[in-house]
Amino acid sequence: DVQLVESGGASVQAGDSLTLSCAASGLHDHIGYCMGWFRRPPGKNLEGVAAIAADGSINYLDSAKGRFTISKDSSKNILYLQMNSLKFEDTGIHYCAADRCKLLVAGAPNFWGQGTQVTVS
């Protein structure tokens, strides 16, 4: 079973920084999977924030470029999202996800975490 558990969500002020973590297990049978972060702003659709492939290639939502950094510690199976200069519009439930890159990029990964709330005021 693949399990993804996010942590690190909090209520912060605009301009603050925050790091989200996602502890992954069960992915050892899914070599080559992409991992990524999605978010659901209040009253809006789910949107992809950042994704990282097994080869280390990275993609970001335009609004996240220059402010957010996705990284992973493969030895610990932890995915991170470092968020700097947070804005009100970054508010939302942030989810960790994993699957084949094609599905992740399409916004349809099969494996999701439970989400962690980020509130920027």
Fraction of residues in H or I helices: under 10%
3D shape: globular
Radius of gyration: 13 Å
Helix and strand run: EEEEEEEEEHEE
Roughly how many Å apart are the termini? 37 Å
Structural class: mainly beta
Question: pLDDT average, as an integer?
Answer: 92
- Biggest sheet record: 7 strands, mixed
* Uncertain stretches: none
| Strand residues, percent | over 45%
Question: If you had to describe this structure to a student in words, what would you say it looks like?
Answer:
By secondary structure, this protein is mostly beta strands. It has one helix at residues 101-105, and strands at 3-7, 11-12, 18-25, 34-40, 47-52, 58-60, 68-73, 78-83, 92-99, 111-112, 116-120. Strands 2, 4, 5, 6, 9, 10 and 11 form a seven-stranded mixed beta sheet that branches. The protein has a four-stranded antiparallel beta sheet with strand order 1-3-8-7, with no helix packed on it. 32% of the residues are buried. The model has no long low-confidence stretch (mean pLDDT 92).
